[in-house]
Amino acid sequence: MSQNKAKPEWQHKAPPLGDGCITFIDQALTKESLVLLTGCRSGVGWLAQRAKLVLAYEHDGFYGTALRSALEREGVKNAHIIIDEKYPTNGPRIDGPIKFDLVLVNGIGRTSTVLTMWERVKPGGYLVLGNTQSPKLRGTCWYLDSMDWPRIEWPDGPRRTSLWCRPPTVLTAQTNNLVH
Predict the structure, then answer these.
(1) Which is more confidently placed, 13 or 62?
(2) Which domains are present in the chain?
(3) For residue 46, what pLDDT is reported?
(4) Pick from 69, 105, 72: nearest CA to 87
(5) Cβ distance 126 to 170 under 8 Å?
């Protein structure tokens, strides 16, 4: 009798983004990558299989607790679910100087997350925003475009996913030092 068990759906299901974006992320992430995910209804396990650390924000306490329990049962130790009912309004709260290789913004609270987390993208890292065709996100997209980060878009039926790449070298205004 075979001891192979099928992986739970949450573990192998990619985030709900266009196929081109998923392929890009799959190729960009390494076992050293740090990932911030908001709106973690799906994709946490998929990202955890590819990254060193996934911090996933969820506003729904019931769902966040269930997902946390499922990750623990499956022995996933590099994905941490942070339940914060205020993150959609205030953006995620992260203490310390951590920077991410990928900030994936999905679910509710996209604009507040972008406004509070874009500085947390490492030079050379990526910020992905789902549903950028939405009129509600026009200002958010304009804000990111105004930083002159290269942008790639992938259509997914009527929806669109956008990815911005933070340039690998940044001159900081406060210290006039190069950041790599």
Answers:
(1) 62
(2) 9-179 (3.40.50.150)
(3) 92
(4) 105
(5) no
